[in-house]
Fold this sequence. Notes:
Blueprint (H helix, E strand, L loop, with lengths): L2 H23 L14 E8 L6 E10 L2 E13 L2 E11 L2 E5 L7 E5 L4 H25 L1
Antiparallel strand pairs: 1-2, 2-3, 3-4, 4-5, 5-6
Amino acid sequence: MSPRRGQQIAQALRRARKEVASGLDKPAGAYRPPGRDECREKRWVVAVDETNAIRLHYMAWRKGSVLADFVILVERITSGGWVEVERFDCCHGCCHLHADGREASQPIYALNVVEDVQEAFTRASREADDRATIIRRKGE
């Protein structure tokens, strides 16, 4: 390999690192999901503990075979029924967490293309399970 070719490769790597770093600073990506009325909806619930006092409530929307949008709720049972404690969703080009019932959110994963939604769902599912376990332990 010529010295010039090595310099070109190093320059391309620096440029790629810079693009990735700038993308990490911006929590919102370019992806906007299609309207939910254009998608097929699926809902399911998973109990976090044997007493069924904390659960994860999943809502997913698929356009064709591709996951296009989702919401994951961490819910707690009260005397009045199920109450949302935390919410994971992906709007405004970013998968994010609304912790402790607040409207303010913490970014989890930027969404630039529809394929990013599946990766965000995987990450949010893992984090929702961890947070639900913590919430259950706080209530003990």
